[in-house]
Predict the 3D structure of the following.
Amino acid sequence: MSDTMRAIAVKGGKGPATSLYVDQIAKPVPAPGQALVKLRAFGLNRMDLLQREGNYPVPPQAPVTMGVEFSGTIDSFGGDTPPDFKVGDAVLGLAYGGAYAEYIAVSTKMLLHKPKELSWEEAAGVPETWITASQALFLIGEFKAGQSVLWHAGASSVSISGIQLAKAEGAKAIYATVGSQEKIDFLEKELGVTKAFNYHTQDWAAEIQKATGGAGVDLTVDFIGATYFQGNLDVAARDGRVVMLGLMGGGKLPDGVNIAPLLFKRVRVEGSTLRSRDEEYQRRLRDTLVEHALPKFCDGTFRVFVEKVFPMEQIVAAHQLLESNTSKGKIICVVE
């Protein structure tokens, strides 16, 4: 068996999408507690774009190769065979990096058995997005049935996952912001969002205040940051929570931001990341996913929306599509 494998690399270490290429590198060797997984597919995430450009703080234990979510089959173990997995098992998983490749060495704490109802491509689009949504909704946002939720970047994979989770857990109302009428129609008709708003043509904060009769929303999940900070405070209900997961709109607040609602409405704002968390925290999130989502993948309640599938060799086109901000759902690469 060869001790090398194909993997996606970046010419010069960082650069535009066109700097991506297929390289030949050493196959990873699993350490004790890890499994070596032969990949069938991997998912793309916005952090990959930032990492490719050299603008993402990669955790020290991450390999140089990008990619954090995947599906495949267990090839071997780095130590004793764990009680819940065996060689040949079909799995999906989350990693600190290294998924843009033919093989990956990953902790068994972050592996899940692949439901037979999911294709390899669908399964590869589950770990990062559904775990991030579960983290924002349940662990940080402390969502409860009967509450309302606002998802910014509503047609992103994390929000699509979170909308389905919130709906299944009894949300009173679900709102979203998106950038096109096509995405509004998708969210309202396909996912049953209460109301979605086009941030290009509508004052989403004013519209949400109108839709809620001034009561606001209990939980907001935000990927935008600075440019949405004031709106998030304005639409927060009393004792509302704002979970910040990204800074697509920048990290420096504009002049004139009024933080009074933080005090008078007792709003809690909390930021979070996933990739920098330790394995035990990520294992807890995996178990949350198993509890809230896995059975619903099996019975068809939850769907993994895949926008497009590319061969690994077309990674440049895959990254360019993700950068275009036109996709709804996951972009997946398959490893032939």
Q: What stands out?
A: The radius of gyration is 20 Å. The chain has a mean pLDDT of 94.
